[in-house]
Amino acid sequence: MNIQQLEYILAVDTYRHFAKAAEHCRVTQPTLSMMIQKLEDELGVKLFDRNTQPVSPTPAGRKVIDQARVVLYQTSLIKEIVNEEEQSLKGTFRLAVLPTIAPYLLPRFFQQLSEKHPDLDIRIREMQTAPTLKALIDGKIDAAIIANQPTENLLQGETLYYEQFYAYIARNENLFKKNLVRSSDVSGERLWLLDEGHCFRDQLMRFCQMEKVKLRQAAYQLGSLETFMRMVEGGNGITFIPELAIYQLSDQQKELVRPFAIPRPARVIVWVTRKDFIRHTIANLLIRNIKEHIPKKMLSLQAGLKVV
């Protein structure tokens, strides 16, 4: 048994296809298949059911694959220990960011950071909260930026900043005439909101005490905040936007923004890693750059704000 074989079975588990797994591992399919067959012979058990499409792990194979993931993650820490001892700012760093955070946060610092540290390869993935936390636990990413503190035992979080929610209201809506928005003012029938699975949606629905969003959501599946903002600008309904988005708006667009009445809803933006995380030099660089490019008032929870 060797590390290469473990990498191969994880690739097959990921792609559920021997040819695609071989392509990912940059070997020929016969080579990959032969190495997996040797591992199966050594263990005396079939790891994959090759008669199904797509290929699927056997019950025993599932347990072996899960353990292989742990072994490969622990093996990767050996190189990271050496790099951290040298305080290295080189190599690949995999960072997941929520889709409701990335478009408004990353442009504030990412390009400057990349130019200043060309040997640091930061690879960004936009992912929702649940798959992000799973990817962290599985060792598929190094860190994440999400909108709540993690509750999983293997993970730890550090607060980056606090961000208010604002209403974004079409000019022909009755609510446009008000200077402040109350949660009771928001009607589900007029609201554009993200699909289920986005914590941005869940937080606001809890704050507005809505059990469901009706007609708007049925009309537009898999929408994004930017899409819903364009719908509002076209004179159609209401949506919610995070505070950093306001800094990207024109003066005309800012006329559509309305704050909530006190207590104003806010979210806490958190840097999350595994508890056995080692690459603190890179993490500290990223955290420092983020905080330097965020308005200072957002670094602490201001009076009148309520984290939802």
Structural description of this entry:
This protein is of the alpha/beta class. Helices cover 41% and strands 19% of the residues. It has helices at residues 3-15, 18-25, 29-43, 59-85, 102-105, 110-116, 129-137, 199-207, 215-219, 225-233, 243-246, 251-254, 280-292; strands spanning 48-49, 56-57, 91-97, 120-126, 143-146, 155-169, 238-242, 257-259, 264-274, 305-307. The strands form two sheets. Strands 3, 4, 5, 6, 7, 8, 9 and 10 form an eight-stranded mixed β-sheet that branches. The protein has a two-stranded antiparallel sheet with strand order 1-2. Helix 1 packs across helix 2, helix 1 crosses helix 4 (59-85) and helix 2 crosses helix 3 (29-43). The longest helix is centred in the N-terminal third of the chain and has 27 residues, at 59-85. It is elongated and about 75 Å long. It starts with a helix and ends with a strand. The mean pLDDT is 90.
How would you sum up the global shape?
elongated
Order of helices and strands: HHHEEHEHHEHEEHHHEHHEEHE
Helical stretch tally: 13
Quickly count the domains: 2
Parts with pLDDT < 50 across at least 5 consecutive residues: none
Q: How much is the radius of gyration in Å?
A: 23 Å
What structural class do helix, strand and pairing data support?
alpha/beta
Mean pLDDT: 90
In whole angstroms, the N-to-C terminal distance is 49 Å
Largest sheet: 8 strands, mixed
CATH class of the largest domain: Alpha Beta
Could you give the count of β-strands? 10
Strand residue percentage: 15-25%
CATH topology of the largest domain: D-Maltodextrin-Binding Protein, domain 2
Percent of residues in helices: 40-55%
